């Protein structure tokens, strides 16, 4: 009542209120027009961009089943060359790191003391041989005189004993000559095996002895060479079965990172006992090593192929994804979208993995860019390796 009476008293206030209401309404209409025009121009919300990926087709190939183990390159033969006589080392005829063959001259010991000794023993032999010849002549005379009782029987027996003694002396002299000749041969130190010469341990001019423990040099055979590696004891029956059937089991040697193949060889044998501390058994494989890529005591990763599965379905290892439900791949659909497909993964061979179930040959799977995908995502294929 009071407000109404006030408005009647002031007619200009009523007009002001009406004008204010009109201005506010007009502003609202003006502000609403740009929004409506924008929505009308844009229409529907645009589709998200396609995700770039790299794909590959599932294919068939022969897949090897491997047993893997850590191994060490071990030479078939390692020889420490030592002097077998005492004397001065007057010559070294090898270069450090040189490849030598069996019988190659490596070093020489001064032979002059042994040559002088040989001359002495040869002279002693000639003297004792002359005494023996004279004793045999006397023995023949005594045998004739005994028949006529010209000399006693005891004198004949003494002469027979003297001849035997001189025969033993001559034989001993010959033995000394032969031993000295052997020592002269030992003055020329030759390589007992073919292999690579290590660092020189003694220089020329030093006095060496047959009892020296260090030796002159170490020779290691490089071709062929072996790798000793271990596998779990649970795999022993499989390996023994293949060896019992006379199957040649290939072995591959890889570097420390298992990326570069160093050599290919074959299994030689399996050890006769299991290491109880590790539950593994040692195996020895032989490699031709014609390119000398395997080096003694080098660490390698060995792969023993025990089986080959023919015509297996394979995809690149990068295509396999993991989830709480197991392994899966992103399969490319005809409409250029992807779908999740659960697969059964088999053995891995190089960059490929075999698929036991869930995928057909020829189907395209994503091998790069899968981290941004989800089921039903649209893709754009960059290239197909």
Describe the structure.
By secondary structure, the chain is α+β, with helices and mostly antiparallel strands. Helix content is 31%, strand content 37%. It is built from five helices and 22 strands. The strands form five sheets. A six-stranded antiparallel β-barrel has the order 2-11-14-13-12-15. It has a four-stranded antiparallel beta sheet with strand order 3-10-8-5, with no helix packed on it. Strands 7-6-4-9 form a four-stranded antiparallel beta sheet. Strand 17 (326-332) and strand 18 form a beta hairpin. Helix 3 packs antiparallel against helix 4. It is elongated, with a radius of gyration of 48 Å. The protein starts with a helix and ends with a strand. Mean pLDDT is 87; it is low at 1-41.
Low-confidence stretches: 1-41
Total strands: 22
Molecular shape: elongated
- Sheet/helix structural class: alpha+beta
In spatial order, strands of the major sheet run 2-11-14-13-12-15
Task: Describe the sheet with the most strands.
Answer: 6 strands, antiparallel, barrel
Global mean pLDDT:
87
How far apart, in Å, are the first and last alpha carbons?
Answer: 89 Å
Helix percentage: 25-40%
Element order: H for helix, E for strand: HHEEEEEEHHEEEEEHEEEEEEEEEEE
Strand portion: 35-45%
Radius of gyration: 48 Å
Please work out how many helical segments DSSP would assign.
5
């Amino acid at each position: 009542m009071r407000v109404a009476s006030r408005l009647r008293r002031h007619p200009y206030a009523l007009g002001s209120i009406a004008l204010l209401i009109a201005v506010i309404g007009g502003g609202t209409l003006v502000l609403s027009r740009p929004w409506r025009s924008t929505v009308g121009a844009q229409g529907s919300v645009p589709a998200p961009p396609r995700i770039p990926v790299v794909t590959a087709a599932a294919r068939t190939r022969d897949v090897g089943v491997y047993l893997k183990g850590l191994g060490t390159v071990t030479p078939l033969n390692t020889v420490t060359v030592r002097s077998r006589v005492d004397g001065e080392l007057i010559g070294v005829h090898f270069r450090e790191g040189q490849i030598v063959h069996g019988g190659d001259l490596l070093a020489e010991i001064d032979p002059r003391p042994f040559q002088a000794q040989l001359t002495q023993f040869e002279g002693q032999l000639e003297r004792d041989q002359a005494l023996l010849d004279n004793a045999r002549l006397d023995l023949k005379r005594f045998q004739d005189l005994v028949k006529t009782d010209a000399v006693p029987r005891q004198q004949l027996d003494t002469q027979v004993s003297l001849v035997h003694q001189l025969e033993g002396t001559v034989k001993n002299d010959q033995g000394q000559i032969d031993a000295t000749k052997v020592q002269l041969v030992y003055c020329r130190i030759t390589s007992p095996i073919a292999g690579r010469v290590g660092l020189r341990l003694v220089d020329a001019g030093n006095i060496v002895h047959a009892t020296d423990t260090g030796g002159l040099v170490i020779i290691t055979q490089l071709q062929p060479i072996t790798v000793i590696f271990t596998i779990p004891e649970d795999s022993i029956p499989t390996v023994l079965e293949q060896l019992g059937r006379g199957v040649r089991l290939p072995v591959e040697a890889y570097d420390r990172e298992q990326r570069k193949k160093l050599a290919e060889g074959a299994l030689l044998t399996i050890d006769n006992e299991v290491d109880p501390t590790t539950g593994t058994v040692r195996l020895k494989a032989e490699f031709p090593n014609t390119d000398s890529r395997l080096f003694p005591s080098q660490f390698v990763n060995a792969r023993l192929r025990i089986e080959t599965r023919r015509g297996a379905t394979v995809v690149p290892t990068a295509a396999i994804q993991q989830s709480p439900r197991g392994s899966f791949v992103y399969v490319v659909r005809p409409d250029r979208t992807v779908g999740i497909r659960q697969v059964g993964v088999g053995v891995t061979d190089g960059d490929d993995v075999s698929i036991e179930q869930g995928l057909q040959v020829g189907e395209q799977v994503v091998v790069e860019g899968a981290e941004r995908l989800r089921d039903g995502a649209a893709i754009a294929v960059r290239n197909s390796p």
